[in-house]
UniProtKB/TrEMBL annotation:
Keywords: FAD, Flavoprotein, Oxidoreductase. InterPro entries: FAD-oxidoreductase/Apoptosis, FAD/NAD-bd_sf, FAD/NAD-binding_dom, FAD/NAD-linked_Rdtase_dimer_sf, Reductase_C. It comes from the Bacteria. It comes from Aquipuribacter nitratireducens. Its cofactor is FAD. Residues 5-299 form the FAD/NAD(P)-binding domain. Residues 324-411 form the Reductase C-terminal domain. Pfam families: Pyr_redox_2, Reductase_C. This is NAD(P)/FAD-dependent oxidoreductase.
Amino acid sequence: MSAQRHVIVGAGLAGAGAAAAIREADPDASITVLGEEAHEPYERPGLSKDYLQGESDADSLLVHDRGWYDEHDVTLRTGAHVDSIDRSAGEVVLADGERLGYDRLLLATGSAPRRLPVDGIDLDGVLTFRTREDSDAVKAAIASGDPLVVVGAGWIGLEVASAARAAGVDVTVVHDGSVPLGHVVGDVVGQRFAELARSAGVRLVDGTQVARVHGDGRVQEVELSDGQRVPASTVVLGVGITPRTELAEAAGLRVDDGVLVDGSFRTEDDAVFAVGDVARAHNAWVGEPVRLEHYAAASDGGPIAGRSMAGALREGEQWAKPPFFWSDQFGAGLEYRGWADPERHHVVLRASAPASETGTPWFAFWHDGGRLVAGLHVDGWDDADTVKDLVTSRAEVDVARLADPQVPLGDVRV
């Protein structure tokens, strides 16, 4: 019997993790990883954190050490664009017309940053943030010392603003919400992130949008929907990302805010899988399909997808960890675990000092009738494991005790 042919479209964390899991499960399998970027697979979180601030180099971002692909007989093809999937023939078609056969195919195509449909958006100095080249461009803009506007107050936007402020750059963050991160954490917790950003010298402009970008070849000014004009030599767009589902859609696979897959990342076609940003997968902990744009989803999902492709899933194995992400901004470090809807679930703030007092721990928890669904700590490293345990076990808690910083977190269960 000939070796199974595994083709992975997408050379990021999820795709590289899947390749490693396939090789571990099947020493004889043929594995080809196709990536559009010129680099070996790398991890993206550092792009807006230590790499952006010049505290780490490109090699520190790599998923596997240089030489790993050759050592493990994995064919890595960078600069490779896949035009289409021929499911009936079991082939992917590359941009140059080459057809590459597969027995199992993994779509790990990730997402693309959104742009704004406004005049001037294509001027020099208007940047998105997704790739290593994007991070390098923002790093160069920060080094210039000129004013910078960040559009969007999500995690990426705030981390870019943090890096720029650390370098002494004048930063304005423009967003259409009432508080930063409001769509993720709600107004109560979002207000604390606003305090943190303002205490670092960020100018926050809430409840407005970009109407137009002005400049002569290069951006010089951002005009807002409320009439304000903000000087800027660089604009960084952090207005979200869109899953790259075009290959799946054209191939007739089911798509609904991501490629629909089960808990082992298999589509309705037994030969095709999807994982990472592009996949909307059933998560057993959440209890429903979710699409996550965070490191942990790719890190956890890639190996499961690889074992699933190789027919080597452990008994009962599926994606079942609570969602998790972390951020570093304005001198504070945080972790969020779980799955909360800030409009539906109740929030409990546990804090003894203003958010501007970095280094003083504070927490937020979300619950449904006293049963935890998510938890966030900011600089609460001594209690990080307790937060993890409370959320992962969906603990039932005494809400009053949970809100009281004098009560140890280990003593809040009912």
